[in-house]
Amino acid sequence: MNKKSAGILIAALLAGGCAMAQGAPGLVSERSISANAALELATTSLERCRADGYKVTITVLNRHARTAVVISDDGVNPHTVENSLRKAYTAFTTRSPSLDMAKRPQPGLAGFMQLEKITTVEGGLPIFAGKELVGAVGISGAPGGEKDSACAQAGIDKISKSLGG
């Protein structure tokens, strides 16, 4: 293999997300939303919902669907904590807005709904860095899932440049 071919191969591997950590072929490097970005997303989403007059809970999940941040506004209903998690988890698992679950045909949807933490309620959005899934956000508490989604999108828009591509 000549130098040009080797350079092209290395560039293709790095561009495809196949970078190896510290040169160890048995390890994989993965990108995830940082705690700072998750907090900024949640704070921006909360500010947007408050400006619209809604008390909500925001849950942001990282690359491994683990909770990075949960913010519950003062006086928010208690069910919003679980509901925001379900929305974020559904968006993460399906790599699409949580509302898209409601559009799935039967009988496949019935089987999928047997899984824990899955919902068909709007308000969960995946978070991408380019085409790579790096997390998800779910919001619950506004009077309608479309309002939850609008607040979530405001948060994603705020951090999108910091996620690169």
What does this structure look like?
The structure is a single chain. This protein has 165 residues and is an alpha+beta fold. The protein folds into two domains: 1-29, no CATH class; 31-163, 2-Layer Sandwich (Beta-Lactamase). 40% of the residues lie in helices and 16% in strands. The protein is built from five helices and four strands. The chain has helices at residues 3-15, 35-51, 79-94, 108-112, 145-159, and strands at 57-61, 67-72, 124-129, 132-140. It has a four-stranded antiparallel β-sheet with strand order 2-1-4-3. A hairpin with a 5-residue loop joins strand 1 and strand 2 (67-72). The longest helix has 17 residues, at 35-51. The protein is globular and about 50 Å long. It starts with a helix and ends in a 6-residue tail after the last helix. Mean pLDDT is 87; it is low at 4-21.
Please bin the fraction of helical residues.
40-55%
Name the structural class.
Answer: alpha+beta
Radius of gyration (Å): 18 Å
Percent of residues in beta strands: 15-25%
Flag low-confidence runs: 4-21
* CATH architecture descriptor of the largest domain: 2-Layer Sandwich
